[in-house]
Write a structure and sequence with these properties.
single chain; mainly alpha; two-stranded parallel ribbon; 2 strands; about 5% strand; DNA-binding
DNA sequence: ATGCTGACTATGT
DNA sequence: TACATAGCCAGCA
């Protein structure tokens, strides 16, 4: 499968994350068949156009924190507001308690075949 | 071709 | 819990 196809797989996984839940980059990578390549998920999301309908804001890093883009600290705020609107809570350290809000996909909806 | 960067993660101290 | 390091690999200069 081509690299471009990998992006589509990533988006397909992100689409499945329900409102009020979050998934980590590594989790998305694994479900998209890119296991261990979380960075590529970040790259794929970075390539999304502004105003996309893909719920990219539901993807956070393994610490439950929002990853800043381009080293811009304020770049995390819009994402945080959207999540709070959906009912996701942050602690005093700006972290989401993953044990409470992490998306747990049910087995049965399988990932695309790995290559 | 070569080297650097990055919306990451696991591991060690 | 927090910081440092190493591994990772597709883009890009």
């Amino acid at each position: 499968m081509s690299p471009a196809g990998d992006y589509e797989r990533v988006y397909a996984v992100v689409w499945r994350i329900p409102r009020g839940r979050v998934a980590t980059y590594g989790q998305v990578a694994a479900l998209a068949g890119l296991g261990g390549q979380a960075r590529r998920v970040g790259y794929a999301l970075h390539a999304l156009p502004d105003g996309t309908a893909v719920p990219w804001h539901r993807v956070v890093n393994a610490q439950g924190r929002i990853s800043a883009r381009g080293g811009e600290p304020g770049s995390v705020l819009p994402q945080r507001f959207r999540l709070e609107e959906e009912g996701v809570e942050f602690d005093e350290q700006d972290r989401i308690p993953l044990e409470r809000f992490r998306w747990r996909p049910r087995r049965g909806v399988r990932r695309t075949d790995p290559e």
